[in-house]
Amino acid sequence: MVGSYLGAKILVTGADGFIGSHLTEALVAAGAEVTALAQYNSFDSYGWLDDLPEQTRRKVKLVRGDIRDAAFVNRVVHGHQIVFHLAALIAIPYSYVAPQSYVETNVLGTLNVLEAAREHGTERIVQTSTSEVYGTALKMPIDESHALQGQSPYSASKIAADMMAEAFARSFGVPVVILRPFNTFGPRQSERAIIGTIIRQALDPSCPAIMVGDATTVRDLTFVTDTAAAFMAAGLSEGVEYGQAYNAGSQRAIMVSDLIDIIIDLTSSRKPVLQDDKRLRPTNSEVRALLADCTRFARATGWSPVVGLPEGLEKTVEWWRCRLSDQQVRRQKDFIM
Predict the structure, then answer these.
(1) 0.90 exceeded by the pTM?
(2) How much is the CA Rg of the chain, to the nearest whole Å?
(3) Per residue in 213-238, pLDDT tens?
(4) Which of 69, 109, 296, 323 is the most buried (most CB within 10 A)?
């Protein structure tokens, strides 16, 4: 097992995504030789990797592909010491519409990564789980012994992927660690997440109101750089057990309605906040409350979050201000042309 990331050959699947792009950036900063796998598309895009600073991006080996393709995954895993497996379908609402696609990507895609790592003797795989596997908390804070509840097709697919990782560790000795981040937020996050959608609507002059779903739910929110640091800790620590799951969260909970109030204050918005029924999950599918107990992970790795919620929200609001400003400039240029 490598002792540091300096010179280590690392593969990040789902590197084009929100957390994946931040993890890729952090790994490059730590001196790793990173292969970043992005989902193939016809737009010549590498997702959020295109937004990385040029000096970072040119140090990354960019690869396009699909984790559902077993032969491709086998080839791309070969030669890497550590694999961070983040590639997944994650939008919960879409999982109600197309559940089979979540099984194919999240379960079979994970199987492909595990089989390739087993064949090539990969030193460690970090499987990305989610706090959604716990469903609505039966006890809080939630530790890793909490029951798993498939309250959406998405969460069911992630439970299955986690169980596959555990099975490969038990059956074949594959060195896989299961990391369960609780709700992560920050720059580059899409509007499918509550913080991004609130901030964008608060700042965007084209939005007359802030439309939200159920604002009575409770969430444990971690800034994205802290989540990236959790992945890096899981990738190197000698204190983790293979086949076991580890929570990574802030260990502080906030009701969404209180979160909205903070964002309104940060953005100086005077817009009304209205409930949009289209944003509501099915009644028995909504996860009412999440609060992490990360004691096990902290003991195994020494990890703990360092960016508090107020600081993280300020950074995220500033990112959205810049993004909306850039979009406005592009629209003006298109109009002139």
Answers:
(1) yes
(2) 20
(3) 888 899 999 999 999 999 999 999 99
(4) 109
User: Can you tell me the distance from the alpha carbon of 290 to that of 258, in angstroms, rounded to the nearest whole number?
Assistant: 15
Is the peptide bond between 205 and the residue preceding it cis, with omega within 30 degrees of 0? no
Q: Given CA atoms 224, 225, 227, 228 in this order, what sign does their dihedral have? A: positive
What DSSP character marks residue 133? Answer: G
Instruction: Give the tens place of pLDDT for each residue, 88-101.
Output: 999 888 999 999 99
Cβ contact 211:274 at 8 Å: yes
- Would you state the structure tokens that stand for residue 309, as one six-digit string? 């919620």
Burial 180-218 (b: 16+ CB within 10 A, else e): bbbbbbbbbbeeebbbbbbbbbbbeeeeeebbbbebebb
Would you say 155 and 149 are in contact if contact means Cβ atoms under 8 Å apart?
A: yes
Task: Please identify which residue in the block is written with the tokens 């969404």.
Answer: 256
In three-state secondary structure terms, 225 is helix
Which domains, and CATH codes, for the chain? 9-185+223-251+291-307 (3.40.50.720)
| 210, β-bridge pairs | 273
Residue 288 CA: distances (Å) to CA of 135, 141, 246: 8, 13, 21
Angle at 62 between CA 58 and CA 63, to 5 degrees: 170
Q: How confident is the model at residue 168 (pLDDT cuts 50, 70, 90)?
A: very high
Strand partners, 248: 181
Cα–Cα distances in angstroms (integers) from residue 50 to residues 85, 184, 213, in the given order:
20, 21, 31
Our CA angle for 288, 108, 20, nearest 5°, is: 65
Please name the amino acid found at residue 236. L
Residue 284 has pLDDT above 70, yes or no: no
Q: Is 189 in contact with 215 (CB distance < 8 Å)?
A: no
Give the residue carrying structure tokens 């969460």.
155
List Cβ neighbours of 193 (8 Å cut-off, separation of 6 or more): 183, 185
